[in-house]
Amino acid sequence: MRVAFFLYLLPLLCACLPAQADATDLPPAHAETPHIQARLIADLAAVRPGDEIWLGIEQKIAPDWHTYWKNPGDSGITTRIAWDAPAGTDIGETQWPPPSRFSLGPVTNYGYGGEVTLLARARVPDDLPAGGRLPLGVTVDWLICREECIPEQVKLGLELPLRAMSAPGENAALIAAARAALPQAAAWPASFSVHGRELRLRFTDAAFQHTPPRAVWFYPDAWGRIDQSGEQFFRVDADGLVLAIPLGEVHTPTPLAGVLTLGEGDERQSYVVTATPAAGGADAPSPDIGFAAAAALAFLGGILLNLMPCVFPVLSIKALALLQHGGGQAARRHGLAYLAGVLASFALFAALLLLLRAGGESLGWGFQFQSPVFVATVATLMFAVGLNLSGVFEIGGAAGAGEGLTRHSGLAASFFTGALAVAVATPCTAPFMGVALAYALAQPAPALLAVFLALGCGLALPYLALSFWPALQKRLPQPGVWMLHLRQALAFPMYATVIWLVWVLARQGGADAVLRLASALLLLALAAWVYGKTRPAKPGWRGFGAGAALVLVAVDIALIATMASPQTGETERHWEAYRPEHLQTLLGEGKPVFINLTADWCITCLANEKTTLDRAETRVLLRRKGIVYLKGDWTNQDDDISALLARHGRRGVPLYLLYPRGDREPAQVLPQILTPALLARAFATVPDIAPASASPP
Q1: CATH of the domain spanning 26-181, picked from 3.30.720.210, 1.20.272.10, 2.60.40.1250, 2.30.29.30
Q2: pTM beyond 0.70
Q3: Among 51, 111, 354, 399, which residue's CB has the most CB atoms within a 10 Å radius?
C-alpha cells in the first residue's frame, strides 16, 4: 500500500523539482534563412565550472545583401541578440567587428556583408556540478537588405558538457580569428572640435607622421553626430592625425565614441576611440566661435527678431509714432529712448540670469515665461496696448497736456515700448541667435552682458535707423487717415498674443489662474474705458476717472500677484510625464524611450508637436515599436528637466532624446526641427513589437 502511494506521488514530486534543460529542448546550432546561414559556436568543446568561454554567432550572408552594425547609419536596424542560459551564467555585451559602408544614393549604412562573427564573452557558473551540461540558447533578429529590406529571425542552441578539465573546440581557431579582428583600444589621446559645419577629430601621436595611413574612416557609435554620407578627409601633421568630417544633425559636447579604421582591405586595422571636446574647441552650438563672432551673430539675430510675430507689431507701432513726431531732433530723441529701453531691459535680463546662475539655477533664454505671474503681467500689458491701439483710451498729447509734459511722456513711452519689445521677444528665437546665446550663457558676466547688449542693438536698429536717417523717413508714407486704420488693425495681433498667453497660463496654473487673469483683463478694460471717457470732461470728472482707473489697476495687480501655483491638468494622451526615476526604471527594463523636453511658451516646440509628434502616424509608430514616450514640461521651472538639458549641453528647449535599447546604449540627440520622415528614420533603430498595420491608440 505504501509502495503504491509512493508511486502515485512520484510524478508530482518530480514536477516540483527544478528541471534542467534537456538537449532535445534546445534549437539546433545551425539555421538558415533565404539570405543567411547562421551558426552558434564556442571556443571550447567542454567546460568546467567558473570557466570563461567565447561564444560566436557566425553569419554567412548572401551576395549583395548586408546586415547592420550597432549604429546602422542613415537607416536600418541593429542586429538584436537575446541569450537564454542557466541562472548565474554571465554573458557580456556583444562584441562588434568593424563595419563596412553600404551606400544607395544619399543614404549610407554601416553593416556587414559576406561572412561575419558576432562575439560575446560568457562565464560558466561556479555552482554547476561536473558531469552535467551547460545548455545555451540564443534568439537573433536582423534586418537583411539589398535594395529592399527583410526582417528575419533564427533560434540557435548549443550544449557544452561540464567536465573537470576544459577542452578546446573545433571552432577555436575561428573564434580566435574573430577576436583578433575586433577593434583594439587606441593608445593615443583623441579630441574633437566643431568648426562651422565640420567636425574635426584629432588623434595625438607623433607615430602617424612616420607611418601615415593610406586610408582613414571613423564610424560613430551613435547616429546623428556626423553626416554618414559625407566624405571624410584626413591629414597628418607634427602632432598626429586630423580627420575632417561633415557635421551631422545631432550637436552635443558629450564625448564622441566610435571605431577608427586605418588602411584598407585585409590590411585594415580598427581601434575603439572616445574623443572628448578639445580645450577651447567647439561644440554645438560652437563655443569656440569667439566673442567677436558671438556678438556679431547676436546683432544679426536681433535684427531678424524684428520680423518675428511677437515683435513686429511693436515695431509697427513705433513706426507710426515716428510719423507723428516728425523728423529732426525729436525723432532722434525718440530713437535713443527706444534704444535705451531695449538695452536696459536686456541688461536687466542678463543680470537676472547671472544672479540666478550664481545661486545654482540652470536657466536659459525665455526662462521668465516659466512664471505664471510674469505670463499674466505680459498678457495684461499686451491687452492694454491693444486697447490703446483700438482707441479705448489715449495717453500723452491727446490728453491736452502742455507741450513739455507731452514731450516727456512721449520719450518715456518710447523707452517703455523698447522694454515691451524685449519682453514679448523672449519667447521667440531668430536665426543666428541660438549659437550666440549658447556661447553667452557659458561665459563670465562681462561677455554674457556684452552679447546680450549686442542682441539688443540689433533689435533696436531698424527703428533707430528710421529715427536718425532723414532719407529713410522720407520713404515712409505721408500721414493721413490710413494711420488710424492701420493703428486699429495692429491691435488684433496684440489680442492674439493675449490669447496665446492665456493658453500658456492655463497650462501653468489651471482654470483658477485663467479666471483670475480674465477678471484682471475685464477690470483693465473697465479702467481704460473710464479713463478714456473722462479725459474730455471737466477737471473734477477727469480726476474721478483717473482715480477710479488707478483703483481698478491696483486690483489688477493684486489679482496677478496671487496667481495660483502651477498645476497640471492632463487629458487623454499618448505620453507619460518625465521623471528621472521613471526613466531609469524604463531603461533598466530595456525598454526603448523617447523624451520630448518642451514648454508651452516655446514656439518651435509647439510647431514640432503639431506637425510631427501629435500626428496619428507618430502614435502608430510609437505603438508598433513599443517606445515609451516621455514628455518633460519646462513651462514652469523644473530642476530635473534643467539637469537633463545641462547633461546634453543645452540651455533651453526643445530637446529630443531617443534611447533605442534601454540603458544599453547612450541617448541619441535628435535635431531641434522635427519632421515625420526624420522621426521615422530615428525610430527605425527600434525593432517592431506589433504588426505595422496596428491602429492608432
Answers
A1: 2.60.40.1250
A2: no
A3: 111
